[in-house]
Amino acid sequence: MRNLTAEQLLAARTLLKWSRVRLGAKCNLSEATISEFENGLRTPHPRKVAAMLLAFEGSGIVFSAEGSPSLARPEAQTGGRHTGNRSWRRRQTNRAAE
Fold this sequence. Notes:
Elements: H1 6-16, H2 20-27, H3 31-38, H4 46-58, E1 61-63, E2 69-71, H5 85-97
Antiparallel strand pairs: 1-2
Helix pairs in contact: 2-3, 2-4
Region (Disordered): 67-98
Protein name: Helix-turn-helix transcriptional regulator
Domain HTH cro/C1-type: 9-63
Protein backbone atom coordinates (compact mmCIF):
# COMPACT_ATOMS: atom_id res chain seq x y z
CA MET A 1 0.00 0.00 0.00
CA ARG A 2 1.40 3.34 -1.02
CA ASN A 3 1.42 6.20 1.42
CA LEU A 4 0.04 9.67 0.80
CA THR A 5 1.28 12.72 2.68
CA ALA A 6 -0.66 15.89 3.35
CA GLU A 7 1.72 17.76 1.04
CA GLN A 8 1.13 15.28 -1.80
CA LEU A 9 -2.62 15.53 -1.28
CA LEU A 10 -2.58 19.31 -1.50
CA ALA A 11 -0.24 19.27 -4.52
CA ALA A 12 -2.42 16.76 -6.39
CA ARG A 13 -5.58 18.74 -5.63
CA THR A 14 -3.86 21.88 -6.85
CA LEU A 15 -2.76 20.23 -10.10
CA LEU A 16 -6.32 19.10 -10.79
CA LYS A 17 -7.83 22.36 -9.52
CA TRP A 18 -10.10 20.32 -7.25
CA SER A 19 -11.73 21.65 -4.12
CA ARG A 20 -11.91 19.50 -1.02
CA VAL A 21 -15.60 19.05 -1.75
CA ARG A 22 -14.89 17.70 -5.22
CA LEU A 23 -12.22 15.29 -3.99
CA GLY A 24 -14.61 14.16 -1.26
CA ALA A 25 -17.31 13.48 -3.84
CA LYS A 26 -14.86 11.53 -6.02
CA CYS A 27 -13.79 9.22 -3.19
CA ASN A 28 -16.84 9.31 -0.91
CA LEU A 29 -15.13 11.14 1.95
CA SER A 30 -16.15 14.19 3.92
CA GLU A 31 -14.59 17.58 3.38
CA ALA A 32 -13.66 17.54 7.09
CA THR A 33 -11.64 14.31 6.68
CA ILE A 34 -9.67 15.82 3.82
CA SER A 35 -9.17 19.15 5.60
CA GLU A 36 -7.99 17.52 8.83
CA PHE A 37 -5.52 15.35 6.90
CA GLU A 38 -4.16 18.33 4.92
CA ASN A 39 -3.78 20.36 8.11
CA GLY A 40 -2.00 17.57 9.97
CA LEU A 41 -4.76 17.11 12.54
CA ARG A 42 -5.23 13.41 11.86
CA THR A 43 -4.11 10.56 9.66
CA PRO A 44 -7.00 8.86 7.86
CA HIS A 45 -7.61 5.13 7.80
CA PRO A 46 -5.60 3.35 5.06
CA ARG A 47 -8.86 2.59 3.21
CA LYS A 48 -9.55 6.33 2.95
CA VAL A 49 -6.01 7.02 1.75
CA ALA A 50 -6.44 4.32 -0.91
CA ALA A 51 -9.71 5.94 -2.03
CA MET A 52 -7.98 9.32 -2.46
CA LEU A 53 -5.10 7.74 -4.39
CA LEU A 54 -7.56 5.97 -6.70
CA ALA A 55 -9.43 9.21 -7.35
CA PHE A 56 -6.20 11.02 -8.20
CA GLU A 57 -4.81 8.25 -10.38
CA GLY A 58 -8.14 7.92 -12.17
CA SER A 59 -7.89 11.59 -13.06
CA GLY A 60 -4.38 11.36 -14.49
CA ILE A 61 -2.18 12.07 -11.46
CA VAL A 62 1.04 10.08 -11.29
CA PHE A 63 3.18 10.01 -8.16
CA SER A 64 6.91 9.87 -8.96
CA ALA A 65 9.40 7.67 -7.12
CA GLU A 66 10.26 10.73 -5.01
CA GLY A 67 6.58 11.09 -4.20
CA SER A 68 5.79 14.33 -5.99
CA PRO A 69 2.55 14.26 -8.01
CA SER A 70 2.35 15.28 -11.64
CA LEU A 71 -0.33 15.27 -14.30
CA ALA A 72 0.19 12.30 -16.60
CA ARG A 73 -1.52 13.82 -19.62
CA PRO A 74 -1.44 17.43 -20.70
CA GLU A 75 -4.74 19.28 -21.05
CA ALA A 76 -4.53 19.03 -24.83
CA GLN A 77 -4.85 15.25 -24.60
CA THR A 78 -8.01 15.49 -22.51
CA GLY A 79 -9.85 17.26 -25.30
CA GLY A 80 -9.15 20.67 -23.83
CA ARG A 81 -12.16 20.30 -21.58
CA HIS A 82 -11.64 21.74 -18.17
CA THR A 83 -14.51 22.70 -16.00
CA GLY A 84 -14.22 24.55 -12.76
CA ASN A 85 -15.73 23.34 -9.55
CA ARG A 86 -18.82 25.53 -10.01
CA SER A 87 -19.70 23.85 -13.29
CA TRP A 88 -19.09 20.43 -11.79
CA ARG A 89 -21.29 21.19 -8.77
CA ARG A 90 -24.05 22.53 -11.01
CA ARG A 91 -24.03 19.32 -13.06
CA GLN A 92 -24.16 17.22 -9.89
CA THR A 93 -27.07 19.26 -8.56
CA ASN A 94 -28.94 18.98 -11.86
CA ARG A 95 -28.43 15.20 -11.92
CA ALA A 96 -29.70 14.86 -8.37
CA ALA A 97 -32.83 16.86 -9.25
CA GLU A 98 -33.69 14.59 -12.21
